[in-house]
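Appendix B. Extra example for self-study. Work through it before the problem class; the solution is given directly after the inputs so you can check yourself.
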Amino acid sequence: MEPGLRLAHLYPKQMNLYGDRGNILCLRRRCAARGIELAVDELEVGEPLDPTVCDLIFMGGAQDREQQRVAADLLAAKGDAVRRAVDAGVVVLAVCGGYQLLGRYYRPAAGEDLPGLGVFDAWTVHPGPAAKRFIGNVVVRWQGATLVGFENHGGRTFLGPAARPLARVIAGYGNNGRDGTEGVAQANAFGTYLHGSLLPKNPRFADHLIALALARKYGRGELAPLDDTLEERAHAEAVRLAVKKPIFV
Amino acid sequence: MAGVRTAAAVSAAKLAAALSRRLGLGGGTALPGLVAEAVAPGLAARLAAELGHGCLLVTGTNGKTTTARLVRDIARAAGYLPVTNSAGSNMMRGITAALSEAADSQGRIPLRERRLGVFEVDEATLPEAAAALSPRVIVFTNLFRDQLDRYGEVDSVAALWREALGNLSPAVTVVLNADDPGVAGLAAACHGPIVFFGVADADCALLGKGLEHAADARWCPACGREYAYSAVFYGHVGRWACPGCGRSRPAAQVEAVRVEQPAAGPLGVLATTPVGRLELSLPLIGLYNVYNALAAAAGAVALGVEAAAIQEGVSSFTAAFGRQERFEVRGREVQTILAKNPAGLNQVLRALVADCGGSKPSATSEPGHRNLLFLLNDDIADGRDVSWIWDVDFEMLAGHTGLLLASGRRAVDMALRLKYAGLDPDPVLESNPERALARALSLTPAGGTLYVVPTYTAMLQVRRILARWGHRPQFWEET
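Solution. Structure tokens for the complete assembly:
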């Protein structure tokens, strides 16, 4: 039997502002190149998530209006399912707004805290309209290598004791511009501020996610190597754009 | 003493323009405005008040330059002497520079009784321009995601516009795209007359598909329901209605009832308007340019221009620099088509692969193997973030490409996007635009056509190179 994986794409119509769908295109293509069929379920507001059938969950970023609309559905209709999936080791990638919504809460500049799903031991604070928005190319250190992307966020995210940072900032702002952390990693769930799209230029991270999902489902996660000459070149150029001096990881 | 100061500012601006051209710094389209504003703050407002017929502003995500240029040509045909920022310098400094250029050394605008200002205005500059220039007409073309690192979110642009409209005099006519729900919804913020434009020809609709990925205005701001479309023309532009509160695409006073889109152009548009039927012929490709023509016609109707002048103006149109231009270079035809955001690039791709809006095949269509050179830059004017190319549906190019090259400062990102679209870009990635153009031309068969699709700053580079090879004037020499 051909191996297959199933990905739940949460709110593709609403959480789709910054090119994040490139992550799906990347996962699908890199799976297909290994003879793995990646089926994608697009789940909008009102559509239920079945935590027992999905192997991966993806959620992108959006502007505030869409994010608020999605937050209500995420908490009320999909929250338990996402938590059960994470507990069962389903691989999650949440970018920017998706990352914030999976944290404990979002504290806007004015008004009450907006509750999040609490999948990540993390919370986000918006310091107000006068504060600088974190915009620019990013390079972070991840598992002895680098990840590259572009960040564009006003909120500052802080990690609690149960959360590990996904990566350490080499250039850019990351979670909050202060503590040098970027993103979050808890079990097989990952949150990050990196757009770009993230995965096409970080093929090792893309394969890491696929391998985790395969290992969970089939007990083995080895992936045949692909010709990533172009991907690595794009990665190297993104590093060069963000970092003016040589780096050692 | 304001007069002396105005005259001094105008002289300083003219000097700065002459110097910047002499020194080869560029078209002298922005620096003079900066200099003039420094010498005499409020200069733009004083000079705009000299314009006998006032002015018309064009703003929106896509189509500003082409629409403003169409209005300019229509205004000429109607006997006005338009003052324009035709080089695409669309912040206040560019408008100030254009007004200074039109003024004499006394700081007065000659032949003022025939003068009409036609200015394209950056989306975020609109509030300032509307306050300073006291326009008679403001045209809104469309609203899409664009340069999110610069403008912030799409909603913040709409909020800026609503505030500007709320501050306008009720004498100002506002021209709105009826088919773009994000723009049509601005009507609620208007106090004065509104002219809607739109497309009624259902043959232009995308077949068998929902909204493109790059659609932005999907939800009704009044009740939160998702819009239902009986026809989608591109992005979120189409015949929309809210199933929740019943808001729907308003009736358009200027409306295309028939659109012809032969592959080799020109576009043909039959439109109904309050001043009679228009038969427009436009030497461009792409449904988005039909919208630009309708926006310009609606703006002209709002100014009181008659049908004959609108038709004559549109037919005399030549594309704005770099937007859609043809060059003869080394025995090949080169067509440049500017594309700088997902909605715009999707429209360009659709025009390149389809004969007619996706539906009617045309007898004049060429076999669909286009030779393509994409140039992706990430300067501030392009947007530093190139993530947006992942929102573009390059997948539709499958089976339609001959030569496929990626260039520009982010050539590798573009090549990677093409690879993940299942396409096979040329493995030689030449980020230098001149070397990329030379390579693309050498690989294009003699007598063939090369389509060059650059982002904004790449377009400026390409045009400079092609002008040198093909002997076209630099853009600031154009009339």
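Self-check: Confidence is low (pLDDT under 50) at residues 355-366, 473-479 of chain B. If your reasoning did not lead you there, revisit section 3.
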